[in-house]
Design goal:
Structural class: alpha/beta
CATH superfamily: Aldolase class I
CATH topology: TIM Barrel
Order of helices and strands: HHHEEEHEEEHEHEHEHEHEHEHEHH
CATH architecture: Alpha-Beta Barrel
């Protein structure tokens, strides 16, 4: 089915294709029977596929990464495709438009995307309005939270805390996004001092709001070994539930797209196949550095079932799709679940 639709979507600009497919599927799901038909085709999970990670039971190991459902408006419909979890966001306290378009580009030769979206979203209150009436009990929802573009780094904690309080009753776990390359200065918050302070304060808030929710951090793939070692140490010192590895990369080496063409596209983070190896190496490093004691969610360059298996073999507990989902469609979810199930035998 997706093979028939993909040429139409790829004839549009990437951002237009995103919203056309997004809105069309949401409208289709209002037709009686469409949700059930989608689930019958794509949702192949069995009880044997379930896994418990940081105290939550996931019906399978495959999820949808943040960035696809920024405002938590279609997570239930996307659940029809068999995902075990969906991460909404990145959500900021206030609504913001993000960077000026065009800001999303396909690098088809490289099976990649380049984006500089800039945390475009309707804000935490609007997202909570969408999350408060969750119906699916078999789908774990993560909340990926960030700071507003105009918030200075020294006030970043206030933004993360606001989002945590606003979304607390709507999500199952939180992800602190300090690794997008598209918000000026954000990656500076990955440094040991500011990141430790933010996470410690959020954990205090987490404890005060009721039953604590798992708290994770999402990191960049471009960190050096010493910085990754710091991340592992911070994870232990702040009692993090997990680490998401990784966000998009600003590295532009070894791409098939010609350098001049790439330069014309402008700045942004690259996802997809060029990130596959680098992200897996980060997972392997962190798994060794933490002795496997901190769960890792793999996000970055999962374009096939083979990639998903390699992430798990490197030490990941869960795997997220994004660019692979765009290039391959919902069939990739089934492919990954089946491959992981086969590994158990």
């Amino acid at each position: 089915m997706y093979a028939l639709i993909k040429p139409i979507l790829f004839s549009m600009s990437p951002e237009a294709a995103h919203y056309v497919s997004f809105n069309t599927y949401r409208d289709l799901c209002r037709i009686p029977g469409v949700n059930e038909l989608s689930q019958a085709i794509y949702d192949i999970s069995t009880p044997n596929d379930a896994v418990e990670v940081f105290g939550l039971k996931f019906k399978n190991r495959i999820g949808l990464a943040a960035g696809f459902d920024k405002d938590a408006v279609i997570y239930e419909e996307f659940g029809n495709f068999g995902f075990g979890h969906i991460e909404v966001g990145t959500i900021t306290p206030k609504a913001q438009p993000g960077n000026d378009p065009p800001r999303l580009f396909r690098l088809v030769e490289d099976k990649a995307l380049l984006n500089r979206m800039g945390f475009n979203n309707q804000g935490a209150h609007a997202a909570m309005d969408q999350l408060k009436d969750r119906k699916r009990i078999d789908l774990i929802i993560g909340g990926n939270i960030g700071k507003n573009k105009l918030t200075p780094n020294e006030k970043a904690l206030d933004d993360y805390a606001y989002c945590m309080k606003e979304l607390y009753d709507g999500v199952d776990y939180f992800v602190v996004n300090v690794s997008s390359p598209n918000t000026p200065g954000l990656r500076e918050l990955q440094e040991k001092g500011p990141l430790t302070e933010i996470l410690l304060e959020l954990q205090k808030l987490n404890q005060s709001l009721g039953k604590p929710k798992p708290l994770l951090v999402k990191i960049a793939p471009d960190l050096e070994a010493g910085q990754l070692a710091d991340i592992a140490e911070i994870a232990f010192n702040t009692q993090l539930s997990g680490i998401i590895a990784t966000n998009t990369t600003i590295e532009r080496n070894n791409l098939l797209l010609k350098k001049k063409q790439l330069e014309r596209l402008g700045p942004g983070g690259i996802s997809g196949k060029p990130l596959t190896k680098k992200s897996t190496e980060v997972i392997h490093f962190l798994s060794k550095e933490t002795g496997g004691k901190i769960p890792i969610i793999a996000s970055g360059g999962v374009m096939s079932a083979k990639d998903a298996i390699e992430k798990i073999d490197a030490g990941a507990s869960l795997v997220q799709l994004y660019t692979g989902f765009i290039y391959r469609g919902p069939g990739l979810v089934k492919e990954c679940i089946r491959a992981i199930r086969g590994q158990k035998k």
